Automatic annotation (TrEMBL):
Family (UniProt): Belongs to the FMN-dependent alpha-hydroxy acid dehydrogenase family.
Cofactor(s) needed by this chain: FMN
GO molecular function, one term: FMN binding
Species of origin: Lentzea tibetensis
Active site (record annotation): H237 (proton acceptor)
Record's protein name: Alpha-hydroxy-acid oxidizing protein
Sorted UniProt keywords: Flavoprotein, FMN, Oxidoreductase
Annotated binding of glyoxylate, by residue: H237, R240
Length: 339
């Protein structure tokens, strides 16, 4: 397999149709889902020449740690639907590639069993004691940051799943991180009344750095800075929540200019080629997250499949830097882009 596109096609044969739809699909008319990818294609590169070096440095620093490439695993639910070893395989692949896995609250493996450099993604639950328990569990398990998804005031309207009648996990799989203190698996709920003022409470219950995922408006990025957050992820949830949200790469420049380098800004949504990563870096993102490609790799070949996804991006990125006349990610700036 020589590209993430090929992996995506191949994965279809490894998944039941309703599971494939669950992973691949978006909300409503899937406008945002398509836009995330096509917006990257609209941006042209204007490479520099005669300024490269024999070795390229792909590493970047993120919340005080160095990662080997500017790609993290975005949080996605239910990895054991893709492969029996689920999140453990994903985490080992991330570890082998020298990067971070963001573990989903909807993971099918307990956070305590997931190895490597991890962050924990959660949605605040109406039962705040449950959230407190989950967050403290993740901190105890060694997760190094909290990722609060702020784009889930309601559940996205995913028509593929409605059509397929996919509304619960098969027997034997549960959202392991939805267990309460008594060990009972609770249903994931939404908290439409979650407000900026709740961030102070999250700070009280955990000492971990706090990253907000699902920021799209520059005014919210500024507000997040006022509330002392440690990082932002520009994300429209891979087109699975509000349809018609603009493509993340189109949203990125206003956010990075509002943030002005004060905290790291990540982007996810539609990253399928290293040139997408080059464009995101040139517009000020520290790193990108990948969601679906990880699930495709996992479905095809477990840990090795996810390793393949990450190594393909690494090889492509190294080549793209050489062809842009860059020796490190810091050489990528907005003057390399035209659109
Ligand atoms: C099957 C699936 C499950 C997801 N589950 C979660 C989740 O549990 N929490 C979350 O914050 N985002 C979740 N996301 C969104 C991803 O974190 C990410 O924003 C998105 O997948 C990025 O787009 P991409 O798939 O085009 O790379 C999920 C996405 C997919 C495709």
């Amino acid at each position: 397999m020589i590209s993430l596109r090929e992996l995506e096609n191949e994965a279809r044969a490894h998944l039941a149709p309703e599971v494939h739809d669950l992973f691949a699909g978006g909300a409503d008319d899937e406008i945002t889902l398509r836009a995330n990818e096509s917006a990257f294609a609209r941006i042209g590169l204007v490479p520099r020449v005669l300024s490269g070096s024999a070795e390229r440095d792909l590493s970047t620093s993120l919340l005080g740690r160095t990662i080997a490439l500017p790609v993290v695993i975005a949080p996605t639910a239910f990895h054991r639907l893709a492969h029996p070893d689920g999140e453990i395989s994903t985490a080992r692949a991330a570890q082998a590639a020298g990067t971070i896995m963001i573990v989903s609250m909807a993971a099918t493996t307990p956070v305590e069993e997931i190895p490597g450099d991890t962050w924990f993604q959660f949605n605040v639950q109406p039962d705040r004691e449950l959230t407190r328990y989950q967050v403290q569990r993740a901190e105890k398990a060694g997760c190094r940051a909290l990722v609060l998804s702020v784009d889930v005031a309601a559940f996205g309207h995913r028509e593929r799943d409605l059509r397929n009648g996919f509304d619960h996990l098969p027997d034997g799989l549960v959202c392991e991180n939805m267990r309460d203190a008594a060990g009972v698996v609770r249903r994931i709920e939404f908290a439409p009344d979650l407000a900026w003022s709740d961030l102070a409470w999250i700070r009280e219950i955990s000492a971990l750095p706090l990253v907000l995922k699902g920021i799209t408006h520059p005014a919210d990025a500024r507000r997040a800075l006022d509330h002392g957050v440690d990082g932002l992820i520009v994300s429209n949830h891979g087109g699975r929540q509000l349809d018609s949200v603009a493509a993340t790469i189109d949203l990125l420049p206003d956010i990075t200019s509002a943030v002005g380098g004060r905290v790291p800004v990540l982007l996810d949504g539609g990253v399928r080629r290293s040139t997408d990563i080059v464009k995101a870096r040139a517009l000020g993102a520290t790193a990108v997250g990948i969601g679906r490609p990880v699930l495709w790799g996992l479905a095809i070949d477990g840990q090795r499949g996810v390793e393949r996804v990450l190594s393909l991006l690494r090889e492509e990125l190294d080549r793209a830097l050489a062809l842009c006349g860059a020796s490190s990610l810091d050489d990528l700036s907005e003057d390399l882009l035209r659109w």
